[in-house]
Write a structure and sequence with these properties.
Helices cover 27% and strands 31% of the residues. The protein is an alpha/beta fold and 248 residues long. The protein has two domains: 9-60, Vcp-like ATPase, Chain A, domain 2; 66-247, Rossmann fold (3-Layer(aba) Sandwich). The mean pLDDT is 94. The chain binds S-adenosylmethionine.
């Protein structure tokens, strides 16, 4: 049986709403009444907790997509569809060590840390570092280390080698020339950028760097909408970013 202890973060899934909450002596106000969070201590995952008005929420163990939807954000986190491309095309596995920058809200780092042995993630903004650390701690990950530093100046000083390097930051092209020194043979570099211009700069830097199997992809996700009028793909056009994957 999984025990819910103080400080743990759980997902409360109701019929219409869901919340990510920390176990404490506090109360939590929902649209359907008040929850006593202390009651969660006597519960396990799959159990039900009720508001003072009798509305039910199922207690679930949160996973990476729950943190994407509910954790505190400092900017635009990478979308699960794009993270999926990185995980699938690099074949990330439990023996791998990962270097990630920038951390942002820590969403990509949470997905990476849920699979890899160790993730070291760099963030240049001190306030973002604090929030990312809280998000990562809430996800229960002890293998993700957030470092407060500028990755562009830090890169030449790194001595360890990694299996995967992920770059989701404006100046990724400036980091690429240093990647070869800190990537293991056969390791992957994966970059993400929202604009053609940044992507082109990254491709130019990669082409100078002796990588192979280079590809740039855009992942288009189309949700189906089921309405009374009919069923069709969502009419929202959703560009997020371009992912470049390269292997050493
Ligand atoms: C788009 S966000 C990353 C989002 C993140 N991948 C996620 O899924 O939550 C880009 C982050 O890179 C950080 N950043 C930009 N340049 C950096 C640098 N040279 N070194 C470290 N962090 C940097 C920014 O402060 C910002 O938080």
């Amino acid at each position: 049986m999984l025990v819910i202890t103080d400080g743990s973060v759980v997902l409360l899934e109701g019929k219409k709403r869901e919340y990510l909450v920390e176990i404490s002596d506090e109360t939590f106000h929902t649209d359907h009444g008040i929850l006593d969070l202390g009651e969660l201590r006597e519960k396990t995952f799959g159990d039900i907790i009720r508001t003072h008005l009798g509305y039910e929420y199922t207690i679930l163990k949160p996973r990476a997509p729950d943190f994407f939807r509910h954790c505190k954000r400092t900017g635009a986190p990478m979308m699960p569809k794009d993270i999926g491309i990185i995980l699938a095309y690099t074949g990330l596995c439990p023996e791998d060590t990962v270097l990630d920058a920038g951390t942002g809200s820590g969403i990509l780092a949470i997905y990476l840390g849920s699979i890899a042995k160790k993730v070291v993630t760099y963030e240049g903004n001190g306030e973002f570092v604090k929030i990312a650390r809280k998000n990562i701690e809430a996800a229960g990950l002890r293998n993700v280390e957030v470092r407060h530093a500028d990755i562009v100046s830090e890169m030449p000083r790194l001595r360890k080698k990694f299996d995967l390097i992920t770059l989701d930051m404006k100046d990724a092209a400036m980091v690429v020339p240093h990647v070869k020194k800190v990537l293991k043979p056969g390791g992957f570099l994966a970059t993400y950028s929202p604009f053609f211009e940044q992507t082109e700069d990254i491709r130019v830097a990669i082409d100078r760097g002796g990588f192979h199997s280079v590809q740039t992809l855009e992942c288009v996700e189309r949700k189906l909408e089921f309405t009374k009028r009919g069923t069709r793909p969502s009419t929202r056009v959703a560009h997020t970013g371009f992912i470049t994957i390269a292997r050493l």
